[in-house]
Structures are given as C-alpha cells and as structure tokens.
Design brief:
mainly alpha; Hydantoin permease; AA_transpt_TM; vacuole
C-alpha cells in the first residue's frame, strides 16, 4: 500500500479526531470554573496530551520499521502478556464513543427534519458504511475537512452571537470559581477533550515523509489549533450566556432561528463524519485482539500465517548486562533486539511505499470485511435499542481514554526510550533520560486522572 499522508492532511485528521461534539460542552466548563481556571485546565490538558502523543511517536522510532507502529506492536515487545488487555481498552474506548455518535444522530436529526430516531440512525448508514470501508486513515482527510468546515460555522455562530446578538451581557467570573461542585464534573470534559492518540499510529504509518520532525509538526500544530478552538469558543459561549450556559451551548440559542437550525444540522453532519475516525482504530484493535488470540491459542498453521516481525529479544548476554546497567537492573530488557532480515528505517526515510510483506499485524481483506461489517452491525443494533448510556460512556472515558492518552504512552516510553542509543553502543542522552522520567510521570498522572474521574463519575 502507498504512504500518501502529508503533514497537512495528517494535521487535519488529527485535529478532527480531537475536536468533536465535545467542544460544545467547553463553554459550560467556563461557566463552572471561571475563565482563568478553565483556560489553565485547557492548557494543562493540551500539554499533557500533547506530551503523551510525542512519547508515542518517539517510541515508534525505536521499532526497526516505524511503519509497524501500533499499540499492539509496542505492547508485544514491552508487555506481551498484557497486549490483549491494552487493545481491549482501546477497543472499548473507540467502540463506546462511536456508539454515542450513532445515538446522538438519532437525537439530532428528528428534531430538525421530523421522522423517527430509528429511521435517521439507519439513514446515516448511507454515509457511514462507505466511509468505514476505507482502509487507510489518510483517505478520511476530505471528510475531516468537511467536518471542520461544519465546526467552523458553529464557531462563527457562537462568536457572532456574542459580537452582534442582542443578548444581555451576563456577569462573568474571570478569576473566581463560580460552581465548585461543577468544577469536578467539568474536569473530565477538559482532560479528555484532547484525546487523539487512537489515530496517531495510523498517521505515522501512512505519512509519506516519515520523520520525527514531521510527526512533531503534526502533533504541535494539532494541539495548538485544538487549544485555540476550545479556548475561543468556550470563552465566547460563556461570555454570551454566563451562568445560564448549558452543557451543550447550542441549546442556549433560539431553535426557531434559521441560523441556529443550520448550526444544529452542521453538528449532526460533524457527528456523522466523526464516526469513521473512531471506527478506524476500533477495527484495528479488534483485528489485533484476533491476531493475539491466534498467536496464543491458534493451530500451528494459523500461527505460521499470522505471525509478524514483532517479537524482540536479546541474543548476547553482554548486551543484556550493558542494557541493565544503563536502564536499571529492575528494567526488563528482553524486548531489545535487531531484526536480521529487515533494514532499519531511519528518521530520514522518505520512502512512500509500505512493504506489505513485513506487515506487523496481518489484516487480510477477508478479515477486514468480516470485522468491519460485524462491528457496524453490532453498533447499529445497539444504537437502535439503547437511547442513553451516559454512565457507561463516562466510565469508559475515565478508564479507556486515560489509558491510551497517558498511562500506555508513559509505560512504553519508560521501557523503550533510550534503547536505540544503547543498541548502537551509545549512552542514553540527556533528553532521552528526561523523557524516560517524563514518561514515568505520565503513568502516575494517568493513574491519578483515572481514579479521580471514576470517583467523580460515580459519586459526584
């Protein structure tokens, strides 16, 4: 397959992955937290999430072929016994959000055009199914552009209503917290607003000029643009309605106005076009779990067909002693090795062709179609029969989103960063040492966030 991704197209896809319907809850966070505290939380979430993306990207460069990057391949060489669990966390996170999008479609369109939620959910398949059949993530760049344009109109409505509308100017809390109990409920909204790690590896694998410089540009540009969207639209939404700001700011506007109806239509369109962005990593995780089960419980013929170049081990005891000395004796070094049959891909590797012979996790066409249609069928059946599962989705976000954004990147970084230098006979550089301990801090940060958000979800 061809690597067709560019910095621009990858940035668009990552921004669209991050900025979704959750943006409309940010003004409510400003209402509860006050402007200063809300902006501070957004900047903190932007930094920690961006750093998690950077650590994942840096870990991908420790692979002999960075185009084999995925949570599964990194798990397989660091925590092989937990690969299934880690992919299951990714699967549940993406599956839950994708399901919530289908349910939201059933809530939005009947209010705009009439009809039943069942009919509108089924009609969405006309757009969703073809987009879900696209195999490569970069193919979704055009729908991401449309989704961002739809979001842009909603943003213009929010800013224009404040600037030119006849709304009474409310009291605004610039530095004080107006709703201390609300701060807890909005904390998770902001922390999880920047979740985009589920699609980072697809971006890395499909990027034509697959260098760390380009990957950092994509991450930095996406985080900066997303942060600007959250801060600007959150601020103007709050400045317009003050303490009357609702959890979905669109509901504050007069639903009878044509401009507002069009904004709601754009919201629905954005949700429809966001679904494939979540379905793509969901399907990859499902295939990874099938692959893991075949490797561990399949017949010999199945194992021979599915095994990929992902198991790494040290051949030389001297190498092992050297690595243990540098990484710490308690550090498991069984994952470090060099492939004998494959050339190492360098940071300057601009090859736009991905060698399918060395595909780390095989995904044959027959299984691709089977997994795709099975997952779509399950999602649609659940969406037609479940009208709300807010508590489950909140718990999924608190655990799954935390795991893929903070905990897993930190665990990977702690084990992998610096190993490339050591295998080249060099000592770990100062920045790599800093990023290793930064990774460890990210693990603890993720665990604290997870416990806090689960507690908030269940008891606040």
């Amino acid at each position: 397959m061809s690597a067709t991704g560019t910095v621009a197209s990858s940035t668009i896809n990552l921004i669209k992955t991050i900025v979704g319907a959750g943006l409309l809850a940010i003004p409510y966070a400003f209402r509860c937290d006050g402007v200063f505290f809300a902006v501070s939380l957004i900047l903190m979430a932007a930094f920690t999430s961006g750093y998690g993306l950077f650590i994942l990207a840096k870990c991908s460069k420790t692979l002999l072929n960075p185009r084999h990057s995925s949570f599964f391949t990194l798990c397989s060489i660091t925590y092989p016994n937990l690969s299934l669990l880690f992919d299951f966390a990714m699967f549940i996170q993406c599956f839950g959000v994708a399901l919530s999008y289908l349910i939201l479609i059933g809530d939005l369109f009947p209010a705009l055009f009439g009809g039943t939620r069942t009919n509108w959910i089924l009609l969405s398949a006309i757009i969703i199914v073809p987009l879900s059949l696209l195999r490569h993530f970069d193919s979704l760049k055009y729908t991401s552009v449309i989704g961002l344009l739809a979001l842009g109109y909603i943003g213009l409505l929010i800013i224009g209503s404040y600037s030119f509308g006849n709304y009474p100017k409310p009291k605004v809390d610039w530095f004080s917290i107006s709703d201390r109990s609300g701060v807890l409920t909005t904390f998770s909204i902001i922390v999880f607003a920047f979740t985009g790690s589920m699609n980072l590896f697809s971006i890395i694998n499909e990027l034509k000029e697959n260098s760390m410089t380009n990957i950092k540009k994509i991450i930095n540009n996406s985080i900066v643009v997303s942060s600007a969207c959250f801060i600007i639209l959150g601020l103007f939404g709050y400045l317009t309605f003050g303490k009357e700001t609702l959890g979905n700011v669109i509901l504050n506007y007069d639903a009878d106005k044509l401009s507002v109806r069009f904004a709601r239509f754009n919201l629905g369109l954005m949700v429809v076009l966001s679904f494939p962005l979540l379905f793509h990593p969901c399907r990859i995780s499902a295939n990874n779990m099938v692959h893991w089960l075949q490797l561990n419980y399949g017949t010999k013929s199945e194992i021979d067909e599915t095994i990929g170049p992902i198991t790494l081990e040290i051949e030389d005891d001297t190498d092992r002693e050297y690595l243990e000395q540098e990484l710490g004796s308690s550090h498991d070094t069984s994952f470090v090795h060099t492939y004998q049959s494959l050339p190492r891909a360098t940071d300057d590797d601009n090859d736009d062709q991905v060698d399918e012979r060395t595909e780390a996790v095989p995904f044959p066409d027959s299984r691709f179609l089977t997994v795709t249609f099975f997952l779509l069928a399950v999602l649609y059946v659940l969406a037609l029969n479940v009208e709300s599962f807010a508590l489950v989705l909140a718990l999924v976000g608190a655990t799954g989103s935390t795991a893929i954004s903070f905990t897993l990147p930190g665990l990977f970084g702690w084990k992998l960063i610096g190993t490339e230098s050591l295998m080249n006979g060099e000592r770990i550089g100062g920045w790599d040492k800093a990023h290793r301990y930064g990774s460890l801090a990210l693990v603890w940060y993720g665990l604290i966030i997870m416990v806090s958000c689960v507690y908030i979800t269940l008891f606040v």
